[in-house]
Amino acid sequence: MGTFTRLKRARWTSKSNLLPLSSAAAPRFLPLTLLLSGLLWLFTTTGGRQIFVKEVLGGAYDSQAEHFLRGDVDVDVDAIGHEAMIVNGKVRMYFGAFPALLRIPLNFLYPAGHGKWSRISGFCAGMIALFAFASLVRIALRSSPLSSRARNWLGNACVIGFALGSPLLLLLGNLSIYDEAIIWGFALSLAAIFFVFRSRQSEGRAATRALLGFSICAGGALLSRVTFGAPFLLIGLFLALGIRRGNRMTNLAALILPLGAALIFYTWLSYARFGSLTGVNFDYYINPVHSEFAHKFGVFSPRRIPTASRTILACASRALSASRLSWRQIAIPITTPLCTPTTSAKSISLSRGLRAGLFSVRSWEFHVCFDAKERTSLSRASLWPFLSNFSASYHIICLPNVMPLICVLS
Q1: Is residue 371 one of the residues assigned to a domain?
Q2: Are strands 90-92 and 85-87 parallel, antiparallel or unpaired?
Q3: Contact (CB, 8 A) for 185 and 221
Q4: What is the mean pLDDT of each run of 10 residues along the chain (410 residues)?
Q5: What is the 8-class DSSP label of residue 83?
Q6: Which of 55, 93, 133, 278 has the fewest CB neighbours in a 10 Å radius?
Q7: Model-level pTM?
Q8: Taking Cα atoms as reference points, which of 363, 279, 313, 358 lies closest to residue 92?
Q9: 367 by DSSP, 3-state: which?
């Protein structure tokens, strides 16, 4: 009898993992997501009054797009300014190509917007990130043993926290040349993670579409910011090894072609810009401060890992141990790399304040609405979205790169 019950339960769990996104068992976030989209639009465009605005060095992507159409990889020195890199007497930039490629159809459709697309571009990326995150939460909760009320509460809290209490708000508040590349890399990484989950829960044509979606999003993340896209090359390899024999060639083509094309284009672009297959060479910087810092401390230095880890874990530890969360306990310390001259102090304060308020509300609702047993289940189920809010600092690299490996290897 016990064996039969376990088999029956296992069979139910297996089937529940294949439920479609429209299943009644999954929480519905569409009304909330649309409301948050409207709020983020008002925030990004300053109440809807400032849509076409020249952000800091945002015109460099337009200039890069024009040079792509001419068949070269140069950029106008007036557009790139102090971020220019001089290679054999020609002006180059190291920023990802995806925002520049996005400018080509936009400038063709509306030439008057030349140099002013940063806010529209960043908002579109933010919406991709928001909807991808909401879809990931639905996938995580639809087979949860929690009650329907608990799933809806937890899901809505996570979506609200992601929209208003994560670095997404900070990036949308200051869509300079730096943040536009970061937000696109972040958004497409989340979308790629979503398609990883879908590919493992789908069969037939649905699996092919999921693999194609993953490949396109991973390629876009690679061309936006290589630190976001590079881990998906390894994840793509694991996905390829896990493809079943049925319809194998079609699935392999869907998985390999877009991502492979993006990798080839990135490699060619790096070599055409700097004569290197690996990417940027900071010796070419027009600003000697950048090159001196890179030589002295390194671009990616293991020496900075302990300090950054202590900062992030200290914030999470204070939040977990506090029964009542205050503004000072929640706010993530703003370190020197974050306080660049182009960073909006207003967006930093608003993001930190909203994060504090949201976690205070969550803590109060958490203890009022649920009994001890439900609180234990909720704590376990909400561990990874909680960590996503606290571990994702300014560059938001940790979660998008680690979570896909966990879901692929699980």
Answers
A1: yes
A2: antiparallel
A3: yes
A4: 43 41 64 94 91 92 95 93 89 93 95 94 96 92 84 91 90 93 96 93 89 96 93 93 85 94 94 83 80 74 76 65 42 34 42 43 40 44 37 38 39
A5: G
A6: 278
A7: 0.73
A8: 279
A9: helix
